[in-house]
Write a structure and sequence with these properties.
single chain, two-stranded antiparallel ribbon, about 525 residues, globular, mainly alpha, 3-stranded antiparallel beta sheet, 23 helices
């Protein structure tokens, strides 16, 4: 591969271009190299399922003649789990401890620990902030005070393990001030606040149905608009405060509404129509509510929904494994919509813990979950990982001029609650606009612009060169072998292979330069590997 001269023509590379390219080209393929160190695939009898979840997956695979991948390594597992649960990579010390621990129950214990962590709460607030359009700026117009109230309610609900049905009920039946009654901001995060538009957003988030989706009875989400016809808005004397209230004097336009699935819900005068809607929605006989959320959690953890996209439920887009989706739906209902239980169930499965390394029979599988699906780190995960490695933080700013937003200097991207607070890097790597509630609004595709930014950006190299953490690591490591091992734990959360260590030692020996610069070169090279850029 020919590398343009300008790609390395920065002050950072005070070295021979050939030597830099040698190190990068050898390490840029670290993921396949690492794969060779894991247990090689050999033919074997189809494994007996140890849980109903795994049985659902493995029965489907068996019907197709597909043999699933082996279990992933401990090194892969701790990194994958931490990214999926907290949005952050594990520390080098946490990775080392987990890898070296011999406890056969350590994976389950780690799952339980991370599900109870602040990181889980923060990452869930981020995901729900995307869905609920949590941002100050147009078209949401929530204003910073409202965003703070909105996210505080989300955070408390998730931290306190509020059941999903209660979470949704509080959100949808809320009334009052946007600064004091957090849930009303659901009804304010629209440029078009018509009942039809609100109903379409409701159907997308909680029923997984897009505006153009046709139900079995030929109805569309717009037909749910009567439930929101009583909503009204008015200003208060407080600056930027808005009151959302439900006017029960508004008479129903229809006597009943035909619901997805064929049932009808009556609308009664002098009642809050939204209550009837939520009662129907959260009833355990509802054919969509639990199923859509179970599929969404599966999508968050597996990188692909059983129904994919997770907000596109329709007859022409059936689930890839109906038995699996039905099982998850029923488990969610049986455990009273306990979201953490749903996470724990999936995370402890063999299916989630499979390697991303494919074999001859499953390399073409996309939707049957015979192997873990490799996907690029999200914008927040990527920039937080680089900041954690270097201990050099990003400076975030809000486009809303007042009130001025102050953030602690060590704020991480995963902690940003307002979609208006951002940086160009986050937007470059596909952070969603929060103008719509589609999961696909977040773009995790890897582009050439992103690759060139990581390779040649002064912003990245400055973080590495200015890192006091990396300089201290260099001083405290002692031998070069120890330094290489510590850098690998820090960046990739694993120990290096012997071949990798040998390659890097050769590079260090051929480049008689400042020891800190050698460390910087190695960190830069590893950050540009596929193994770092992708969750695998």
């Amino acid at each position: 591969m020919r590398v343009p001269y300008d790609l390395f023509n920065t002050n950072y590379f005070r070295m021979k271009k050939l030597n830099v390219f040698m190190l990068t080209s050898l390490l840029i393929l670290a993921l396949p190299l690492f794969a060779q160190n894991q247990k090689a695939f050999t033919a074997h009898d189809f494994p007996n399922a140890v849980s109903r979840l795994d049985a659902c997956v493995e029965n489907s695979l068996k019907e197709k003649g597909i043999i699933p991948s082996e279990s992933c390594s401990d090194e892969t597992f701790i990194r994958r789990l931490s990214l999926d649960i907290t949005g952050r990579m594990p520390t080098a010390n946490d990775a080392r401890k987990f890898i070296q621990t011999k406890d056969p129950e350590k994976r389950g214990k780690l799952i339980d620990s991370l599900l109870q962590s602040d990181g889980f709460v923060e990452f869930q607030v981020l995901k729900w902030g995307d869905l609920l359009r949590c941002k100050s700026e147009f078209p949401s117009n929530l204003w910073p005070n409202a965003v703070q109230a909105y996210t505080r309610w989300m955070k408390e609900s998730i931290r306190d393990d509020k059941s999903y049905d209660q979470f949704v009920r509080e959100l949808l039946i809320s009334s009052g001030s946007n600064f004091r009654s957090a849930g009303v901001n659901f009804y304010r995060a629209f440029q078009d606040r018509t009942p039809k538009n609100i109903a379409e957003s409701f159907a997308l988030i909680f029923l997984g149905m897009r505006p153009d989706t046709k139900y079995g009875d030929n109805k569309t989400p717009g037909d749910l608009s009567p439930f929101f016809s009583q909503l009204k808005y008015k200003k208060s004397e407080e600056w930027k405060e808005e009151l959302v209230y439900n006017d029960r004097d508004v008479l129903p336009l229809v006597n009943s509404v035909s619901m997805p699935g064929g049932s009808k819900v009556a609308l009664k005068s002098q009642t809050d129509f939204r209550i009837a809607l939520v009662d129907w929605l959260t009833d355990k006989q509802n054919p969509y509510f639990a199923k859509v959320m179970a599929n969404r959690v599966w999508f968050w953890l597996m990188g692909r929904g059983i129904v994919n996209e997770p907000d596109d439920f329709k007859e022409s887009n059936p689930p890839s494994n109906p038995e699996l989706l039905s099982f998850l739906e029923q488990e969610f209902k049986d455990h009273n919509y306990d979201v953490r239980y749903l996470f724990r169930l999936i995370l402890n499965s063999r299916t989630y813990q499979r390697s991303s390394i494919v074999n001859e029979s499953n390399h073409a599988d996309e939707g049957l979950f015979s192997h873990y699906r490799i996907h690029r780190l999200t914008a927040e995960q990527l920039i937080d990982a680089i900041c954690d490695i270097t201990d050099v933080y990003e400076i975030y700013s809000s486009r809303v001029p007042e009130p001025f937003t102050f953030l602690p200097k060590d704020t991480r991207a995963v902690q940003l609650e307002d979609g208006t607070i951002s940086t160009p890097v986050l937007e470059m790597f596909g952070r969603p606009s929060r103008d719509i509630s589609y999961e696909s609004d977040r773009n995790n595709n890897l582009t050439m612009k992103q690759v060139l930014f990581l390779l040649n950006s002064a912003q990245i190299t400055d973080k590495i060169n200015k890192s006091k953490k990396l300089k201290l690591l260099t001083d405290q490591s002692g031998s070069r072998e120890k330094l290489i091992s510590e850098v690998y734990l820090l960046v990739l959360n694993r120990f290096p292979l012997q071949s990798e260590t040998a390659t890097i030692l050769t590079y260090f020996s051929n480049n008689k330069k400042d020891k800190y610069q050698n460390t910087s070169d190695l960190v830069w090279a590893l950050i540009n590997t596929k193994e770092f850029l992708f969750n695998h």
